[in-house]
Design brief:
Layout lengths: L1 E14 L2 E6 L2 E7 L6 H13 L3 E2 L5 E3 L9 E6 L23 H14 L5 E3 L6 E16 L7
Parallel strand pairs: 3-6, 6-7
Antiparallel strand pairs: 1-2, 1-3, 1-8, 4-5
Helix pairs in contact: 1-2
Length: 153
């Protein structure tokens, strides 16, 4: 499981001209589920996303998580199989490592639910849709998070 995580002042995802998910301050996550991902990787990633300290404290240090923001924070989860792309060979990314639908759709939904179960407000994009994502990156702060295989805490 691999995610591109951006700290944002606001973010939204639109499908067919309609906003289907939006947040104010928080994290915008492009999430790819990969072949072989299990509940262990999902739990590891949900815990990491909810507790990743990317927000500044009173001293300006990145010591706060989206959980620490309380009702002022949220996570916009966007399914994005291209994040699983392998660009090490050739000029075209290979997507053989990405989990195939409908299994990937189920796993993405379970990841969103797992993040929400940690007390975080979650908005989400639509699996398989042509989505338009808008965001105001804060910082900018962008990190890549990859769950280790057979993840444990």
């Amino acid at each position: 499981m691999r995610c591109v995580v951006q700290r944002v002042q606001q973010a939204s995802v639109t499908v067919d001209g309609t906003i289907v998910g939006e947040i104010a301050r928080g994290l915008m996550v492009l999430a790819a589920v990969e072949k072989g991902d299990t509940e262990k990787e999902r739990a590891w990633m949900a815990e990491k996303l909810a507790n990743l300290r990317l927000f500044p404290d009173a001293e300006g240090k990145m010591n706060l998580s989206v959980i620490d923001l309380g009702d002022a924070g949220g996570v916009l989860m966007v399914p994005n199989f291209t994040v699983a792309g392998d660009c090490r060979k050739g000029r075209r990314p290979g997507f053989d490592g990405a989990m195939r639908p409908p299994e990937a759709e189920h796993e993405f939904g379970a990841l969103c639910d797992a993040v929400g179960a940690r007390g975080v407000r979650v908005a989400r994009g639509v699996f398989g849709a042509d989505m338009k994502v808008a965001l105001v990156n804060d910082g900018p702060v962008t990190v890549i998070v990859e769950a280790p295989r057979g993840a444990s805490r």
